[in-house]
Design a protein that fits this description.
alpha+beta, five-stranded mixed beta sheet, 2 domains, about 40% helix, D-Maltodextrin-Binding Protein, domain 2, Fructose-1,6-Bisphosphatase, Chain A, domain 1, 11 helices, single chain, seven-stranded mixed beta sheet
Length: about 300
């Protein structure tokens, strides 16, 4: 097993170096692979969603269904073909001594918002992100129950896919040009006079409420928009909300794709309590609280306000 892991690590680093030395064609091909994987997984997830599925619970108390497992199999099988290590919520994790040497890793949440899935409110997503040097550089977030998708690509921008069904009809021959023909560019510009806060539908704690109050400052009427899963990041990326704050720990795969989307759209995100950029592929795959911004010009003022 150790020998196999060593070979895999060497192979991944070789792929990274080869990839680094080529033009954007190779990058485009692996991003397309990720988008196709998310679409394909979404189709399987919706088949389970339409059925009388069972809900089980993992050791940490979080729910899991057949949809999580099937989506995980589809996504991991597709992404492993890129030669880049995959870190998924529903798969065994490589030892950090192996992971820490990877310049590139995929970060996957096959079904983000399983509570939303089991509650059948449609606000669950499929999240895939590419992490480069511990920073998210690409993310695809699809919400198959509402037939919408979002992707962020550093250097190209952030986009909404207005109909996943249209894309699904073109699988497996879907190409990037097909996606960009219908993709809508996103802007993080919001109403500065009435900034809305994106909040969690299922994980809004008292600590997070206090953090939101601090961010609101003198604003008397706090406008909040409740969403499940990574759809909160999508609200910021499309300019519907100004802030998304969370004052509790969260797994890396829960935020990576949405974080990439927000950065590509022109937004920003800082970790709490240090105010630094949030990192990925750490030894402990859990991130602290954070504040995400549609407008990065607000970061300095918020750091001062929160004494970060």
């Amino acid at each position: 097993m150790k020998a196999e892991r060593f070979i895999f690590a060497c192979y991944t680093n070789f792929c990274y170096k080869s990839f680094e030395g080529k033009n954007m064609t190779t990058r485009e091909s692996i991003y397309l692979q990720a988008i196709k994987a998310a679409l394909d997984a979404g189709r399987a997830v919706m088949d389970v969603y339409a059925s009388d599925f069972d809900t089980e619970f993992k050791n940490d108390g979080s729910p899991i269904t057949l949809a999580d497992r099937q989506a995980n199999d589809i996504i991991c099988s597709a992404l492993e073909k890129t030669g880049i290590m995959v870190i998924s919520e529903e798969s065994p994790k490589e030892d950090f001594r192996i992971r820490k040497n990877q310049k590139l890793v995929w970060m996957v949440d096959p079904v983000d918002g399983t509570k939303e899935f089991t509650n059948r409110n449609g606000e669950f997503t499929i999240n895939i992100a590419l992490i480069e040097d511990q920073q998210p550089v690409f993310g695809i977030v699809t919400a198959p129950a509402i037939n919408q998708g979002y992707f962020g690509w550093m250097g190209k921008g952030a986009f909404q896919i207005p109909s996943l069904d249209v894309m699904l009809k073109r699988l497996p021959s879907l190409e990037l040009k097909d996606i960009f023909e219908v993709a809508l560019p996103l802007s993080t510009r919001v109403d500065e006079q009435n900034p809305a806060f994106a909040i969690s539908r299922s994980h809004l704690t008292e600590k997070t409420k206090k953090l939101i109050s601090k961010l609101a400052g003198a604003q008397s009427d706090i406008v909040t928009i409740s969403k499940g899963s990574s759809l909160k990041f999508c609200l910021l990326a499309e300019g519907t909300a100004q802030y998304y704050a969370r004052e509790d720990f969260i797994n890396e795969w829960d935020t990576a794709a949405g974080h990439a989307l927000l950065l590509a759209a022109g937004g920003a995100l800082i970790a709490i309590p240090d105010g630094e950029p949030m990192l990925y592929n750490k030894e402990n795959l859990v991130n602290p609280g954070f504040v995400a911004f549609a407008d990065p010009k607000l970061v300095s003022a918020v750091k001062k306000n929160l004494a970060l």
